[in-house]
Each structure stands twice: as C-alpha cells, then as structure tokens.
Specification:
Nucleotidyltransferase, domain 5, alpha/beta, 3 domains, 406 residues, Arc Repressor Mutant, subunit A, five-stranded mixed beta sheet, ROK family transcriptional regulator (chains A, B), homodimer
C-alpha cells in the first residue's frame, strides 16, 4: 500500500463516480427503471446494468416494483430500482392558515402515510405544532410507521421566509405570531424528533412539487398561487431559487396599482390587493355582483364577475410579464382553487403575458394551472428534503466505500 | 486485484474527491493562496496543504506568485497556486456595435494579451469576424502567444441570444444581420481555431465579469447596462441564468410605459425607450435642454436634464423592483458610462427600488455602478469558459487519475 499505482485503479475510481451519480439520481427522484437511470445520469444502458448489479448485490439498492402500471407501449415491464426503503424516513409538514398537512415517506420515496388536521385561522403556533405532533402520532400508529432512521423534516409555513435576520413585518401581517413562528417550529420539531429540520415558505415548496410533477424538461418554472394571498416561487434546474436572503418569489407584493389599496404587508397597490381571492370577491361586491364564496366566484355567469377575474389576471399577467422577460421560464404554473375552477384566469394571464414579451415563439412560456391539490406543500417539503444535499450530507452511503471487483 | 477491499482505499478515494474540488476551484477562479483554496472548498488548511503538495509534485499545479501585492495586513506573503499555465489557452471575444475586444488567457487565468479594434456600426458580420481574426493574429505576434492547446473560445454578441430556434426579430432590429450572426460566428471561429466555441449575449458576459469582480459573497446579482440599448442579466451562485430558451435578462424590453413609444424590438413603451442613452438625449431635447452627447448629459447642471435622468432611473427602478421582489438579489449593478458619470442614476434607482420592496433591511439589495470598463465582455467570456463545465469536460486532468500514496 505504499504506492497505489495499480492498473485497475483508474477504472475502479471512475466506477465509484458513476455509482455516486446513480445513487444521487435515486435519492433525488425515487424509484427508476434502469433506462430512466441511464437517461438521468447520461451513461449507457450497459454501464448502468453493471453498476446497478453491484449496488443490488451490496444491498444499497433494491427492486421495488416494475413499470407495468405506468409503462407506455408494449414489451416486457422493466424493474424499478430504489434506495433501500428501510434506510431512512422523511417527514413533510405543511402549516397552512387553517390546516396542517403531513406526509411521511421512505428512502424509496414511497409515501407511507399522509393526512390533514384543520384548525382555526386564529390558532397560535404552539397549538398548531401540538396539532401536527398529534397528527403524526396518529398516522404513525394507524399505519405502523416507525421513525427508526428519520433523515430529515421539511416544514412549510405561510408568509415570506427570510433566511437570516427576522423581518420587521407588522405583527400579525402574515398570520398569528409570524415573526416568531420559524424559530418555534425549528426547535420544537428538532427536539421532538431529533432530526435535522428545514423550514421554508409553503408556496415555494408547493412550487417545487408542481415543477417536479410537470414535464421532466420543464425545469425552468415560475409558480404563482392565488388564494387568501398571492405567493410565488422560481424553480431552476429542479431546485428552488431562495434569493440572497431567502425572500425570493414574492410576486404577490409586486406593485401593480401605483397608489392603490393598502396591502397587509404595509405597501400600497400590491398584486395581492387585486388578485387574491378575497380581493376578487371584494371587487365583485363593489361592482354590484352578488358573489360570496370562491365557488360562486368561479361559477358565476355574471359578466361583471368575469371582468373582475380578467382584471385580476391582467394585473397578474403584467407582473409575470416582467419576470418572464428577465427569467425566461419554460412554464408558468398558476395554483390555487380559483385557477383550477375558472379557466379564464390562466387564459387571460397567458394572453397578457404574451403581449408583454418579444413576439417570438421562443420567448413565450407554456401556461397551465397547478396539478396537485392540498397536499402540494407537504409533497414539496419531501422533495426539498430529497434534493437538498447539505441536509443529506450524512445520508447513509452503501457502506463501506470501496472499489467493487473489477 | 480480484477484490479491492483494501484498508487505505476509502482514504484514497476521499482524497481523490478533495483533489477534484481543489482543481475545480483553481479552474474556476485562477490563482489562489492555500488559505483561499481552503475557504473555497471548505476543507482545513492542513488537508489543503497535503493535497496541494501532491498536486505540485505531479505537476498539475504550479506556484505562480505570492499575494504580497494584494495582501492586506502584515505577515509572510503566501504563495499563490494555479493550474499549470501551459496546459491551455482561452480566447475571449466581445463584438460590440462599434468595436471588437479580444482577451487571451492561460489556464492560470493570466491575461496574456488583450486589445480592441473599432469598426463602423453598419459593418456586416463577415467583416467584423475578419477584423477580430486580424486583431487576434496581431496580438499573438506582438506578445508571442501561441494557441498550442486552445481549450475554448467565448464570444459575446449584441442583442438577445436565444439558445435554440432563431428568433423572428425584425431584420436589423438588434444590429446588422442579427438573426444570422450567431451561426456565422460559431462556425467561423470553430473552423479557424479548431476549438469549441461558446456564444452568448455580451451584456450577460459583462454581468458575469462584474459579479465576479464584486464581493465574493455577492453571488446573487442583477446586472443592468444603460448604453445605446438597455440590457440585463441574472447571476446566481456565480453562474449566468440562461433561461429556458437562452433569452433571460432582457430587462430593457420590459414594458414601463403602457402605450408608450415604439421600441426597436417591435413592442411599445419598453424600458429601453426611456432609459437608453439615446432615449435620454431625445427626452432632454424634447424638454428644451441643449445636450448633444453622453458627456454633456452627465455633466449638465440644467435641472431639466437631472429630471430626465431621474425619470429614466425611476422607470428602471420600477422594473428592477419587480425583479428584485421575485429574485431577491444581494446586489444590483448598473453598468454603462452614464451610470458611472452621473451618480444620480444609481441613487434614484436605489430609492425607487427601495419603495417597491418590503420595508425590511433583508429585502433591500446593495446598489453600485459597474467597476469594469470596456473589457467587461471579453473578460466575462473568459470567465464563462472557466466556469462552464460542459465545455471543459475534457479539460486536462492531472493524468493519470490515480490514488496518491497514503
């Protein structure tokens, strides 16, 4: 061992690098067929077959199922491989304004249990956290899930989520006890479960889940959600853009009506004052249309209501137009029930954005409404865990690291 | 060699990974002291000393100088290490509207030669390319530079630079023969020099150079240039954001005056129609101020001229405000001679952006005018070459790849 210039060594090292790429693809994406792995890591099918054979033999990877269910076309179903499911569990939690959502997954990305529990909008953070703990305990007991090797906890919270110093937002502006929320959540979950905790804005996590649920090629995504507020997020190369201080994505607080109505953030004329669901309902009432709920807003045939929806979408389109000119996304995804229920939102936003961009096909992103439902935040928290390498730095390697037989 | 479960092997593999990180840091950043390398790759000084000792012994890395010239404080000057300068040359070319700039560097990032050659704004692409070739030949002869191992050519061009399909821009909108420019440049340089060619918008390349010239921590940068037109670019984590179709960064064509004047891009009321130097000069004349050149625009004490500059900066600030809300940059850099000569531009833009963002310290980026001069595009082209891993995939490794003595 004094000098290791052995002829087979370069080969072994290259193979080790290839192994790492395969394991990383499985960590990030969950179960994949050998063909999908080959495309994901850019290696030949032959090489992938060799690598996965070795990984299977060492127990780092297992066969979980076949692609018979999802397979397009005929032919023999292909085995799908994944990291050993028992090597770790992951917990995704999404605290919304009126409910908490929980999803628990294994290292193969299989969701072992998921559920939701409602609470009142005025509920404080300590109670919200206790509600989540009780839900997690109940789900664990019902489904027999044990956190034998909990690898990480991803938590979504409402409101902007600065990375460093706490924001000086007006108390209560973004929900009860917003400013203190993050620290409480961090500490409470870390103490209770003894695992690393990652906290982020839940709209951003939903955006990540949506980007991954879309076409594989659509890795340049601008996501916007219209609900009680208006949130947004950017995804580049399958990863969230956090921004310099963790504040990226706040499309809802772009000024669209200079000198317009006061926003709860303290500014005037934010997009949220025009395009949130409460703002649309208020505009309808103001213009004499009798709609009192989101469902009525979406289903009304009153032309006044349609014009309110179009006005909101035009304001959204102007803001998205600026961002699209600078960020050049492949896809703009609009989330929130209203976008799903009222197609005029996506249609009008797309039209307005089109007029704001260069009149070239290459300049125009695709538009769609979100595919996921209420579980998008918890799903996104899991995706962020699977994809955030710092957190998973000590993710179990197929120990020991060694060159495989040549 | 049938089964390599040797005790020293895991150690050798870890060291190989560390070596790769050190080599990558030197590739991307040029000459660094051991302390700078340690900070860049996140390893201890002791580990770095061991790794660099081995790399020096194998000739992959050389000592180029000491940090005596740039060192802050007292103490013994530290050696600076770099990749073997003779292992490759890199060529950066920037085609502006009225001149071409060339810079030639070695693998240690040392600029071996640089220069510029003017041409008329109406000069066609074949002549521009011939002018560049002649300049490169002359620089090579004068400085004794030989392209023994030319690793890559980075080329900046004016106008938007879509990655895939050619844009359907009006002929001449972004300079003579814009649509065909890229293909000509690609092929001409590849044929002449027999090296891989990368072409990008020159404002984007300047943005990369500026981001790297700024504080090391400022890796989230929004760059804007006010000159004959208005260009922009986003840098995240030290890399340019290309966008889905290569069109990212076109801040100059964001609509800031709905229904405003016709822009050369074909749209109405673009930022460029208000904040480009020609637009500012035209606005001065329209309001009766007698200024005919950029220098007069910058030095005039006429309050009408100041108001024109402020109006341009307010429009810029509104557009930057939207982008900053969504992208959350650490720094906004404003390039172009007018930003350097008229401090009111940066000052007013900063004020306007501040009013568009959350009123929190964490939300506000730093503002500065650009530090680099006319050589920013060519410098950025070199930086893009050093940092673009695909191009450098076959960059010479310290061959052969092998584990070093334990």
């Amino acid at each position: 061992m004094s000098d290791m210039r052995l002829p087979g060594e370069a080969h072994a090292l290259v193979r080790h690098t290839h192994q790492e790429r395969v394991l990383r693809a499985l960590r990030e994406r969950g179960a994949l067929s050998r063909g999908e792995i080959a495309r994901a890591v850019g290696l030949s099918r032959t090489t992938i077959s060799e690598i996965t054979r070795d990984l299977l033999r060492h127990g780092a990877v297992v066969v979980v199922d076949t692609d018979a269910a999802s397979r397009a076309g005929s032919g023999r179903p292909a085995e799908r491989l994944a990291l050993d499911p028992n090597s770790g569990q992951f917990l995704g939690v999404d605290f919304g304004h009126r409910r908490v959502r929980v999803a628990i997954a294994d290292a193969a990305h299989e969701v072992l249990a998921s559920g939701r529990q409602t609470y009142d909008d005025s509920t404080g953070w300590p109670e919200r956290i206790e509600t989540a703990f009780a839900l997690i305990d109940r789900l664990g007991a019902e489904r027999g899930v044990h956190f034998r090797a909990l690898q990480g906890i991803g938590i979504g919270v409402t409101g902007p989520h600065p990375r460093s110093s706490a924001p000086h937002a007006p108390e209560g502006a973004f929900g009860p006890g917003f400013a203190a929320a993050r620290d409480d959540v961090d500490v409470s979950f870390a103490e209770r479960f003894g695992a690393p905790v990652m906290v982020d804005n839940n709209t951003r996590l939903a955006a990540l889940a949506e980007a991954l649920a879309g076409d594989a090629s659509a890795e340049n995504v601008l996501y916007v959600r219209l609900s009680d507020g208006v949130g947004g997020a950017l995804v580049i190369g399958g990863r969230l853009v956090p921004g310099a201080t963790g504040l990226a994505g706040e499309l809802g607080h772009v000024t669209v009506v200079p000198g317009g109505g006061r926003c709860r953030c303290g500014k005037d004329g934010c997009l949220e004052t025009v395009a949130s669901v409460p703002a649309m309902l208020a505009a309808c009432r103001q213009r004499g249309a009798d709609v009192g709920s989101l469902d009525e807003l979406a289903s009304s045939t009153d032309p006044v209501v349609e014009e309110v929806l179009r006005d909101a979408a035009r304001a959204l389109g102007r803001a998205v137009g600026v961002v699209a000119m600078v960020f050049n996304p492949a896809e703009v995804v609009i989330g929130g029930d209203i976008a799903r229920l009222a197609p005029v939102i996506v249609e009008q936003t797309s039209d307005t954005v089109g007029a704001e961009l260069f009149p070239w096909v290459a300049a125009k992103p695709a538009f769609r409404c979100a595919r996921l439902a209420d579980d998008d935040g918890a799903t996104g928290a899991l995706a962020a865990l699977f994809r955030s390498s710092p957190l998973l730095a000590d993710y179990p390697e197929p120990a020991p690291i060694r060159a495989l037989p040549a």
